[in-house]
Design a protein that fits this description.
The structure is a single chain. The chain contains four helices and 29 strands. The protein is mostly beta strands. Strands 18, 19, 21, 23, 24, 25 and 27 form a seven-stranded mixed sheet that branches. It has a six-stranded mixed sheet with strand order 8-7-10-15-12-13, with no helix packed on it. The chain is globular, with a radius of gyration of 21 Å. The N and C termini lie far apart (47 Å). It binds CU-O-CU linkage and copper (II) ion.
Length: 421
């Protein structure tokens, strides 16, 4: 596919994978900008010093064409992360300016095969060229730029070979601008072992990935699937489920190592546990978008959000706490003293889904509509009318972006930053 599309680079060229012999380790990456436009690189999900976070005009000056910039920081955490342009993402990420950043655990769960799948979609015309209407108003005010062709690692309708009897780890990363994936793996039994790079007790859950989100899973390939094919289906839109990819199951390998049966949880990253006793709580209300006003009115009537929101005249397609688009980056939406535990109570008063991402931190998802959760993540997907409480210890100073990872919603106003002093 990528041969026909004007992309910035081929995804297969940049498998960034580390096996540090100790933590923290020094991460260094020199970026040469050979694009026709300025750029920056953001290390999604990685806890790092603010000046290495890659947000243009907030944490660094843009890297101009022909210039370079070195990112250098101590990294503490293992897991599945990714990096991407943070400048004009609606075009630069869409054209493929993103890569996976895999940091292996000290003691990774034993598997025969460790696979990374970059999930993406593309909006193409017949001759295979990208439709260049980045940031089209209709996309911004609806569900974002949804493509007409979905790919795994840049390949349309591709396949991955596995062997019967193997235990495989699959790292899923959704790098699409706007598409949400809900994958089914057919008859392949699996357990989720990590969300956004952070280990969870191996569990059964649906594979739902909003843009920016990651899931690691471990699957046991049953012997009786030998010679068969397993369809990987994206059924996010039930009326339009399609086969995204397939797993072609080969005969068992002769020299296959036997692994212990249990899938052990990954050791947690060194993140200070949250103490909620003196937490400060801040509400973040998402508003705007097509068909948003009826949802907004309903939620005011149900007292889910304050009545003032009924009278905010929306300055742009989307807002956080009613703040105009142009003001989104002109001052912090929230200032926190260093050391404070902060609960963000995020409420989605729109008719659309939003994967909300906080830079530089990993938060605990405390509850979703009153139901306790407990998952650690850096991006959380909110359905229309949902309220989700997330908590983090504000121990890393700087200006940290908080935004919807549907990139068209982000530029449409669903962004801001939190200052930790
Ligand atoms: Cu991956 Cu500001 O985002
Ligand atoms: Cu959004």
């Amino acid at each position: 596919l990528l041969e026909f599309v004007k992309t910035y680079f081929e995804l297969d060229d940049v498998p960034v994978r580390y096996r540090p012999s100790f933590f923290p380790f020094l991460f260094e990456c020199e970026v040469f900008n050979r694009l026709p436009s300025a750029t920056t690189v953001h290390w999604h999900g990685v806890r790092l010093p603010n000046e290495m976070d890659g947000v243009p005009n907030l944490t660094q000056a843009p890297i101009e064409p022909g210039q370079n910039f070195t990112y250098r920081f101590k990294a503490h955490d293992a897991g599945t992360y990714w990096f991407h342009s943070h400048m004009r993402g609606i075009e630069q990420i869409d054209r493929g300016l993103a890569g996976s950043l895999i940091v292996e655990e000290d003691n990774p769960p034993e598997v025969h095969r460790d696979i990374t799948w970059f999930l993406d979609d593309w909006r193409l015309i017949k001759n295979g060229e990208i439709v260049e209407n980045f940031g089209a108003m209709h996309d911004v005010s609806h569900g974002g730029r949804i493509g007409n062709l979905s790919t795994v690692n840049g390949v349309f309708n591709g396949q991955t070979q596995i062997h019967a009897g193997e235990r495989i780890r699959v790292r899923l990363i959704n790098i699409a601008n706007a598409r949400i994936f809900n994958l089914s793996l057919g008859q392949l039994p699996f357990k989720v072992i990590a969300v956004d790079g952070q280990g969870v007790t191996p569990r059964t859950q649906e594979i739902i990935l909003g843009p920016g989100m990651r899931i690691d899973l471990i699957a046991h390939v049953p012997q009786d699937l030998s010679g068969r094919e397993i369809a990987v289906v994206d059924r996010y839109r039930r009326d339009a489920a399609y086969r995204l990819h397939k797993l072609s199951v080969q005969e068992p390998q002769r020299s296959q190592k036997t692994l212990d049966n249990a899938i052990l949880p990954i050791a947690p990253n060194p993140i200070t546990p949250i103490d909620l006793t003196r937490a400060v709580r801040h509400e973040v209300v998402l508003t705007g978008g097509m068909m948003g006003s009826s949802v907004l009115q309903q939620m005011i009537a149900e007292k889910a959000i304050p009545p003032e929101y009924g009278s905010v005249s929306l300055p742009g397609p989307w807002t956080l706490n009613g703040r105009p688009v142009a003001h989104g980056m002109q001052g912090p939406m929230l200032s926190l003293d260093r050391g404070v535990t902060c609960i963000l109570s995020i409420v989605n008063a729109t008719a659309w889904y939003h994967p909300m991402h906080l830079h530089g931190y990993v938060f605990d998802i405390l509850q979703r509509n009153g139901r306790a959760d407990g998952t650690r993540a850096d991006t959380v997907l909110l359905a229309p009318k949902e309220r989700v409480d997330v908590a983090f210890l504000a121990d890393n100073p700087g200006d940290w972006m908080f935004h919807c990872h549907i990139l068209e919603h982000q530029i449409g106003g669903m962004m801001g930053y939190i200052r930790v002093k």
